[in-house]
Amino acid sequence: MTGKGVCERGLTWIKPSFLWMMYRCGWGTKAGQETVLGIEISRDGFEWALRHACLSSHVRGLHSDRSTWQRELKRAPARVQWDPERDLHLQPLPYRSLQLGLSGEAVRRYADEWTVCIRDVTPLAHEIRALVSSGDLDSAARLLPGEEPYPDEGELMAHLRS
Question: Is 6 a residue whose pLDDT tops 80?
Fold first, then answer.
């Protein structure tokens, strides 16, 4: 599992999609986001976060009511939002990728237990961006980190479907 973390609004965000992260950081060119790290975390840690997560927005029919969802969100050490996946031109695709926000206990576990390795992927981001800019999409696509849909085993993510 490869995640990219960004700290915003008191949360540490894991962005499991490389291209979504490139959209977010502008290929490592946005101010304050010039370094892009690929952070590999354990599957057990990722699944702990999913089990303890709450959706970042209220979904009628999934949550009994807005106040119950708000209480769950305040208590949850992780939150999930679904954002449009991106293509090589960073344009939205018709399906969504999970973004996982961590706080409190989840941040401690992320830093102390779940992190397997950290790699600076900034040069890779710049290389892929240059290939996209020159129109060599095939070469750019070959350099993308391998990503596959996460296997939804049983009820692991049922409470996070919008």
Answer: no
Of 87, 109, 92, give the one whose Cα is nearest residue 14.
Answer: 109
Question: How many CA atoms are closer than 13 Å to the CA of 148, on its beta-carbon side?
Answer: 3
Residue 25 has pLDDT above 80, yes or no: yes
Q: With the C-alpha atoms ordered 69, 74, 79, 84, is the resulting torsion angle positive or negative? A: positive
Give the span between the Cα atoms of 134 and 157, in whole angstroms.
39
**How far does Cα 11 stand from its chain's mean position?**
12
pLDDT band at 108 (very low <50, low <70, confident <90, very high): very high
Residue 155 is predicted with a pLDDT of 77
Asked if 144 and 132 touch (Cβ cutoff 8 Å), the reply is no
3-state secondary structure (DSSP) of residue 157: coil
Residue 75 burial class via C-beta count within 10 angstroms: exposed 0-12, middle 13-18, buried 19 and up? exposed
DSSP-based three-state secondary structure for 128: helix
pLDDT of residue 80: 93
Counting runs of H as helices and runs of E as strands, what totals does the chain give? 6, 8
Question: Rounded to whole angstroms, how far apart are CA atoms 37 and 153?
Answer: 28
Average pLDDT over residues 47-65: 87
